[in-house]
Amino acid sequence: MKTAWWIGGLATLSAIVGVGYHLTRSAPGTGPTRPVAVAKTGPTAVATSTNTASPASAPPFHVASLNAGTVTVPDGRPTVVYFMSAGCGSCISGEQQLARLAAQTAPTVQWVSLDVDPGYDTAKAVLSMAHYTGAHWPQAFGTNAIINAYHVTQLDMVAVIAKNGQLLYDGALPSNAQLHRLITQAQA
């Protein structure tokens, strides 16, 4: 009888530890659930800071899209870049938020999602997530140069780039109202 209690207690403790580990590793805003491994190809971008008094130019990049040829940023259009991972739970809701907003914005706005974990995520997983969330825009894998240039330190980050190439915002996914204001500013 004591053996059954001891085994049951150990099983319960293991389940609690497992659930706690899972919850802390997948909580929104905690960043990647494992070290981010990114491809080391692509252009070398110059890092800029959005904390300066004068506006910064968005670091340029070209990436091969998983679903739409080559993506160039900036390209003379207002652009929203979303830094995410297909294995990130909060990124699904973030991409759904962006898809709803994209449906309300002018077709001249360029939307791009960059998966920052190509060492773990597959092209199929990224495209499946885009389909599920309604993100009907280019999906690609980010490079170290892009991630560093845009100061990506966690998942669910966004960069908003004006049509003149000015980096207007580089940070955590903002509210729809703030993002709408930034897009309006980017179109001016």
From TrEMBL:
Matches recorded under PROSITE patterns: THIOREDOXIN_2
Superkingdom of origin organism: Bacteria
Stretch forming the signal peptide: none
TM segment ranges: 6-24
Keyword vocabulary terms for this entry: Membrane, Transmembrane, Transmembrane helix
Residue intervals of the Thioredoxin domain: 52-188
Gene3D superfamilies linked to this entry: Glutaredoxin (3.40.30.10)
InterPro entries linked: Thioredoxin-like_sf, Thioredoxin_domain
Name of the protein in its database record: Thioredoxin domain-containing protein
